[in-house]
Amino acid sequence: MNIENRTSISCFLWILFICTINGQEKLITKDDVVALALENNFGIKVAKNQVIIADNNASILNSGYLPTLTGNASANYQRDDNSIEFPGQFTNDGTPREDANLYKAEAQNYSTSLNASYILFDGLNRFYNYKQLKEQYQLTELQARETIENTIVQLFSVYFELARLSENEKVLQQTLEISTQRFKRAEYAFEYGQSTKLDILNAQVDITNDSINLLNTQQQLANTKRDLGVLIDQDLNQDFKVDTVVEFIPKLKIEEYVSEANLNNVALLQAERNLAINAYDIKVSKSGYLPTINLTGAYGWNLNQSAASVFFPGTNSNNTRDFGLGASLRWSLFDGGSTNVRVKNAKIAYQNQELLKKQVALEVNRDIKNAQGVYENLLNIYQIQEQNVITNTNNFERSKEQFQLGRITSIEFRQAQINLLNAQTNKNLAKYDAKLSELQLLQLIGQLLNVAF
Questions:
Q1: Threshold 0.90, pTM exceeds
Q2: Taking burial as the number of CB atoms within 10 A of a residue's CB, which of 72, 150, 264, 430 is the most buried?
Q3: What is the DSSP string of 369-428?
Q4: Residue 444 belongs to what H/E stretch?
Q5: Hey, what long-range contacts does 242-245 have (CB within 8 A, 24 or more apart)?
Q6: Burial class (CB in 10 A: 0-12, 13-18, 19+), 231
Q7: Backbone phi and psi for residue 301, each to the nearest 5 degrees, phi listed first
Q8: 124 phi, psi to nearest 5 deg
């Protein structure tokens, strides 16, 4: 055996060694990747945080229903040291008037107060605002659900691509093994004078091509594993394998889900929530026509002691306490028409949202019908490809027998081998295309998170 032949065989053995190692990789199931994505995916984490923010906004603490309580305190201290001269002034007995000195003249002031305020009635503004915040929270939940659904579809597009490449790798490995066996057979036949050097060269070319195809597929496999690792926030150097078993939902169940799509589609549900929010906008704007009643209460304590001056004595400590209650009514009888404008604009915004909802409903209905048609078509293609694999397998086995008997050439045998390879890889592609199409349909009819993957 020459050096070129030994190199080809060594390359083949090395590829087989890599495939053997890959066979020992850890299995990550579909449920595993979904659980990891829900826990680790950055987009889903952000969406969950947005839900928490909306929940905080919709709490009683942000509603305006609770009173406000304000405390104030102050303390002041002042000390004066003064000296006042009286030039040219004399007392009654004719002596010059003495200077007046004031030392450590202290003044102190302490005060505290507690003020309470409560809006008894504000034209139902806070009531409708609170309702609106509750609707906003539900809308944020739906937006988070949409993010999760989009992430899961993206996740499985990568997962199924990984599964497809894994199955293609096995097919290419088998193809390489068959080509290597043909190469050895051609060498033995050449040694015994039963074939020409051309048969060996043809077999060697096929080994080279099959080796390159296998190596390229393995590289794509490694890249796709890293893509999946990003989506589930895992170590990009981690090696694993995926589940290649695919089960389809029965057609009757799909039709049942489709009939309930208007109740479950996330885009339609978001349109309904937006419509409810706009309805509350109208009511919030109308609250400007009604009065506002406010209650107030205050309690205060004050301690005041003034300093003595040159001419007046200081006052003693003055300790006071006071308590007060009050109520006020404010009614804007005419605000220049701004409330009227807000109400009109809110009504127009509501009408626009109604139009958007109708548009969304029409588009969703179209998308569901298209997705259902695509899914059924891909499912039929997959079934055809399954039968095509059976046909090409039988053809290959027959061609193999004929080749071994010398009734067909190596080129004809290679064509049968390529036909089988294409049929197997096309079947793999059709299988995962159909399953991904099923998930996209389930997303549109609002059942993606309610089924087993």
A1: no
A2: 430
A3: HHHHHHHHHHHHHHHHHHHHHHHHHHHHHHHHHHHHTTSS-HHHHHHHHHHHHHHHHHHH
A4: helix 410-444
A5: 242/27, 242/28, 242/29, 242/159, 242/162, 242/163, 242/166, 243/27, 243/28, 243/29, 243/30, 243/163, 244/163, 244/166, 244/167
A6: buried
A7: -135, 135
A8: 70, 15
Amino acid (1-letter code) at residue 256: E
Instruction: Say how far apart CA 342 and CA 286 lie, in whole Å.
Output: 8
| Tokens matching residue 18 | 């890599």
Residue recorded with tokens 């929010």: 277
**pLDDT at position 3, please?**
37
Which one-letter amino acid corresponds to residue 85? E
pLDDT at 126 over 50: yes
In this predicted structure, the answer to whether residue 185 has a pLDDT above a threshold of 60 is yes
**Alpha carbon distance 135, 142 (integer Å):** 11
Distance between CA atoms of 179 and 192, rounded to whole angstroms?
Answer: 20
CB 439 within 8 Å of CB 153: yes
Are 14 and 180 in contact, with CB atoms under 8 Å apart? no
Q: Convert the pLDDT of each residue in 364-420 to its tens digit.
A: 999 999 999 999 999 999 999 999 999 999 999 999 999 988 898 889 999 999 999
Query: Mean pLDDT over residues 234-251, rounded?
Result: 91
CB neighbourhood size of 113 (10 A):
15
Q: Which fold has domain 3-69+123-290+334-450?
A: Outer membrane efflux proteins (OEP) (1.20.1600)
